[in-house]
Write the structure tokens for this entry.
Amino acid sequence: MRGKAFVFCARIRYNIAMSTYKIITYGCQMNVHESEKVAGLLEARGITECTEGVPDVVVFNTCCIRDNAERKAIGQIGRFKQLKKDNPGAVIAVVGCMTQQDGAGLALRKKFPFIDIVLGTSNIEKIGDLVADALTTHSKHVEIDDDPRPAIVEDVPYYRTSGTNAWINIMYGCNNFCTYCVVPYVRGRERSRRREDILAEFEKALSDGYKEVTLLGQNVNSYGNDRADGYGFAALLEDLAKYSGDHRIRFMTSHPKDMDERVIDIVAQSPNICNNIHLPLQSGSDKILKLMNRRYTRDDYLSIIDKIRAKMPDCGITTDLMVGFPYEEEEDFEDTLDMVRRVGWSNAFTFVYSPRRGTPAASMPQVPAEVSKRRIMKLIAEQNAVTRRLSDGYVGGVFKVLCEDVVEKDGKRLLCGRTDSGRMVTFDGPEGLVGEFCDIKVTRSQSASLFGTRV
Ligand code: 5AD
Ligand code: SF4
């Protein structure tokens, strides 16, 4: 712990430039990327990542999408009380969605008085200044704007940590108000970044050597709707597709109500844009979709799937599914299972509905926990059967894979990477291949896992 060298008087003073940080991230890719922003702002202050020993600064980047995400963060924050005992000058900061819920920021400080900084989602750019201040003066800060819709701040230094992939936010916030979801409340309304800012960040990512860029937004299909220039997601994809070179582009998340054919056409026509679409369905029941305020029907969804498959038969389509939403009856759940069999998602992220304070669905009649539990088990089993069948279909084929990482499997060091369609493949090879594209013949599948050899 390098900072301890700077103890004087009764107080512990830190040389900021010799302090270290650790960021603990919960939740979605947006949060993972936001932690890269926090890291960038701390690094710009000379605070470096803690690779051994006890950190001087701990930042919790929280999520509140479901109750278990919130409970996990609270449990973990509680455990850091000991860090303050071992290192009284350490700074503990809590940022992210959880802080932005009604009164939650102050409640956190009350529950854990050892927390030094609580920052709302609109105030994140201040993290570098406040941490520096807290390290040197031991002052406490709680900054949460009631209205989480700040102007977009550009030129924030990112400290990218996601290997071969560079995340690029194209927009922030969400306007959809699905009745179960806290995101519009904690992240505010949609704000799209300017075309030139996105293109500049994209060019920089390529010139820094990133082989994959993933465009991020809660609903990428509504990119640009808040801007007057008429420049939308399809046009953005078209612009990005013009960059030649050995790289690929992914994007997430698409909303079925806004998925237009032009986007499907551009993805299909552009070799650098992966045939991989994350298209959350949530429920297969029209009754439940209406109660969720999703604004599409199961037939609308199926018709988008048909359009995607007509242009890209091998497109990897993934989804999010929820069980136990208020008023979900057995036949509604059966409708969701029916969609699992009909659509053939390569992967589905499955959730039990979790009531969120302040959202309309929280005051609807709740489905008993044991019913939701039985349903989620059944749903997972059905999707696993589909994933297994689709995995078998890869065996014998040769796929271009971007080698992303080294993994330990049965005591052996192997490489892993994804196909254009987004399926993870494990294969043998030298570690120097990380960051390179390889042609991999899939030789074996095991549930969701694919194994192959270089050809
Ligand atoms: N309960 C359970 N799952 C939720 N999601 C969003 N809000 C809730 C909630 N209250 C799921 C949705 C969404 C994914 C990111 O998280 O499926 O697509
Ligand atoms: Fe939440 Fe719906 Fe917005 Fe997705 S589209 S972030 S589920 S409100």
